[in-house]
Design a protein that fits this description.
The chain is mainly alpha-helical. Helix content is 74%, strand content 1%. Strands 1-2 form a two-stranded antiparallel ribbon. Helix 11 runs parallel beside helix 13 and helix 22 runs antiparallel to helix 23. It is rod-shaped. 27% of the residues are buried. One of its GO terms (biological process) is intracellular protein transport.
Length: 759
């Protein structure tokens, strides 16, 4: 039953499916009928037109038969010609079609030759690529195309050779114009530095270093004097010129780098980039070695150094531009290698040639040029610390050249000085001198005009030249990126050399001159005394410049006090020597009248002349601390007198002995008269106290009292030695023997007194 039921169900489904299929067929038949009805009229029209065409064809056939019947030869000939024309037409059409394919190839080849002729290598290479890969494959079966294909490698080599020739011309051009490129780059760095200084308005030395103008305004010690290091001496790069406001072109504006770019691209396209890079780097290394060789006379002028620096800067500016505008032609390692070589050779050359410089102005200008050179290259990313370290070495040489120059300055000042106090006749002259030299004297200010300063003109001149030397040292420290403490230490050390070596030697040379007089020596003592007092003002002057307090740890002190003391002592010693020589000359004129029957009542003429000389000499000793000199004078003047006195004491004539003592009274009386202005009370007499005591000994002949009070047996020993050698009174032999016994007895007593005194 179940199976039967399923069969009945399947039969019913099949019947329904057939009904639907028949219904769909009927629908399609109706649509086909509608479409036929819609296009039937068009079909009828087409048949009608076809019938008309057939009719026209029949008419043409009749006409053709007519011509064939009446004109058979001409028609045959015309038909043959028509046939040939149609054949030619087909050939021409085929040829035109083929030429249409070849024409672009010919045009590209012509364009290629034109580009190569006009040295447009980069476009020519592009054209060659298009011709080879796009156009020639379309007409490769033609013979001329095969010739072109065979010629392409030759064209590539020709492009490489021509582009390499352009590169060589470029390398030669930048070698010749490196100095111009470097000069332009250094001008740009100078302008940038000036702009930075204007914007920042801060000194380069950390710690607030004052400018020269500021120091002049803040220090009462400043004066306006002519400096040996004048403004024109340091004119390395005058940025105040007319061209400062003009825009300085860059390296890319001065040099056409397109040959490098084209050649690099061409070699890259042709697969020879590595060959190109190696060639370029090799040639540039050769050029670097040529650039780094300084001319033999570079040290003679600043232009020689400037041209040398310009070439080096120009070389590395070009390399830096190539580094940043090409991909891999040069790399940082290659640039660093070149810079290390350049830095070592440049420093060696500067050390050698700068050692020949004897002009401090040239050394200072060289320093400024080196700083600009370093700043320029530092702006391009090159390390320049070694250059600044070398500048510290040049600073020592600069100090030496300054010392040599100031030696001449001091010599001229000392030679041209009149060694007389400076006279002033009005208030204006007085203020001018006080403004040049820190001097204050209340008594001198109260005096009416005209009046005189105690020192001569070389005092303010020397003082101002010391300050100008300090300024010259300060100029070198600018832009060296030094701390204020380092600058202060450098200035103080150089100033100490100036004082202890240069100025000291100049003063000693003046003092030791043969023709220098006592007046000049006295004035030198006065001058050095005032210069010694001014050392504290020089300390303040340096402090105002560097802003480093003297109390700072490790601050170098000025040695000016020692210098001027040594000069003053040397002058005093020279005065002692000259006076002693003069006194010896007077005493050599001493003449005793050995045959006189009674003592004289007045001093000898030579002694009167000596006292007159001393009186005129002491007149110029005003303002001098000559106590030590006055102590030396009696002993030095008494030695010749005692030498003569030892002989006189052995004379048998009592009045002759007493008369010989009288010359010794004369100097003591001279001291009592007060010949030296400014000495108070018995100051000068105290200097002659020993001589007075000696006179009392001989007059009173009280040796025991003398020895007990003074213990000085030297005089008696000298008299005894002299008596043994003197034969003047040999005829009085008995008296001579008695006198000799007395002398020996006294000598023994003196020895015993000496021994007891020492024990």
């Amino acid at each position: 039953v179940r199976i039967l039921t399923l069969s009945v169900y399947d039969g019913e489904e099949h019947g329904r499916f057939m009904e639907k299929l028949e219904a769909r067929i009927r629908n399609h038949d109706r649509e086909i009928e509608k479409m036929c009805n819609f296009h039937y009229q068009g079909f009828v029209d087409s048949i009608t037109e076809l019938l008309k065409v057939r009719g026209e064809a029949q008419k043409l056939k009749v006409r053709e038969n007519f011509f064939l019947f009446f004109f058979p030869p001409k028609l045959i000939i015309a038909m043959e010609e028509l046939k040939q024309c149609r054949l030619q037409q087909r050939n021409i059409s085929a040829t035109v079609d083929k030429l249409t394919l070849c024409l672009p190839v010919l045009e590209m080849y012509s364009k290629l030759r034109e580009q190569m002729k006009s040295k447009r290598h980069y476009p020519a290479l592009k054209t060659l690529e298009h011709l080879e890969h796009t156009y020639l494959p379309q007409v490769s079966h033609y013979r001329f195309c095969k010739i072109m294909v065979d010629n392409i490698p030759k064209l590539r080599e020709e492009i490489k050779e021509v582009s390499m020739s352009d590169l060589k011309d470029f390398l030669e051009s930048i070698r010749k114009h490196s100095d111009k490129i470097g000069e332009t780059a250094m001008k740009q760095a100078q302008q940038q530095r000036n702009l930075d200084n204007i914007v920042s308005q801060h000194p380069r030395i950390s710690g607030g270093k004052k400018s020269k103008k500021e120091v002049c305004a803040s220090s009462d010690l400043e004066v306006k004097t002519t400096s040996p290091m004048s403004e024109q001496d340091s004119g390395i790069l005058d940025v105040e010129d007319e061209d400062e406001d003009e825009e300085v072109p860059g390296a890319q504006d001065l040099v056409d780098f397109s040959p490098v770019y084209r050649c690099l691209h061409i070699y890259s396209v042709l697969g020879a980039r590595e060959t190109f890079e190696n060639y370029y780097r090799k040639q540039r290394r050769k050029q670097a070695r040529l650039v780094l060789q300084p001319p033999s006379n570079m040290h003679e002028t600043l232009d020689g150094y400037r041209k040398y620096f310009n070439q080096i800067v120009g070389f590395f500016v070009v390399e830096d531009h190539i580094l940043h505008t090409t991909q891999g032609l040069v790399n940082r390692a290659y640039i660093d290698e070149l810079w290390e070589m350049a830095l070592s050779k440049t420093i060696a050359a500067l050390r050698t040639h700068s050692s020949y410089c004897s002009d401090p102005s040239l050394v200072l200008d060289l320093k400024n040029l080196i700083v600009l050179f370093a700043d320029t290259l530092q702006g391009y990313g090159f390390p320049v610390n070694q250059l600044f370290d070398m500048l510290l070495e040049i600073q020592d040489q600069y100090s030496e050249t300054l010392l040599k120059k100031w030696t001449g300055v001091f010599r001229n000042i000392l030679d041209s000085d009149n060694y007389s106090p400076i006279p002033v006749t009005n208030e204006e002259m007085y203020k001018k001198i006080v403004g040049q030299f820190p001097f204050q004297d209340a008594e001198l200010e109260k005096q009416p005009f005209p009046k005189k300063f105690p020192f001569s003109e070389f005092v303010p001149k020397v003082y101002n030249q010391i300050k100008e030397f300090i300024y010259a040292c300060l100029k070198f420290s600018e832009d060296l990126h030094l701390s204020s403490t380092e600058v202060d230490d450098m200035i103080r050390k150089s100033t100490n050399l100036l004082l202890t070596r240069t100025l000291s030697n100049c003063l000693q040379n003046v003092i030791k001159r043969k023709n220098v007089g006592l007046t000049e020596l006295v004035q030198i003592i006065i001058n050095t005394t005032h210069l010694e007092k001014s050392c504290k003002f020089l300390e303040e002057f340096i402090t105002n410049i560097t802003n480093v307090l003297p109390e700072t740890v490790h601050t170098t002190k000025l040695y000016g006090t020692t210098t001027f003391k040594d000069a003053r002592h040397a002058a005093e010693e020279e005065i002692y020597t000259n006076l002693n020589q003069k006194i010896d000359q007077f005493l050599q004129l001493a003449d005793y009248d050995w045959m006189a029957m009674e003592p004289g009542s007045k001093a000898s003429d030579y002694l009167v002349d000596l006292i007159g000389f001393l009186r005129s000499t002491f007149a110029v000793f005003t303002h001098l601390p000559l106590w030590s000199f006055c102590r030396e004078l009696p002993s030095s003047s008494s030695q010749p007198l005692l030498s003569s006195l030892s002989s006189v004491c052995q004379s048998p004539c009592p009045w002759l002995v007493k008369g010989a003592f009288y010359p010794l009274f004369f100097p003591t009386e001279f001291a009592r008269s007060g010949p030296v202005p400014g000495f108070q009370g018995d100051t000068l007499q105290l200097a002659f106290i020993d001589l007075r005591q000696l006179l009392d000994l001989f007059i009173q002949w009280d040796w025991s009292t003398y020895l007990a009070d003074y213990g000085q047996p030297t005089l008696w020993a000298r008299m005894r030695d002299t008596s043994r050698k003197n034969n003047v009174f040999a005829q009085f032999r008995k008296n001579e023997r008695d006198k000799q016994k007395l002398i020996d007895t006294v000598a023994k007593q003196l020895r015993s007194l000496i021994n007891s005194h020492h024990s």
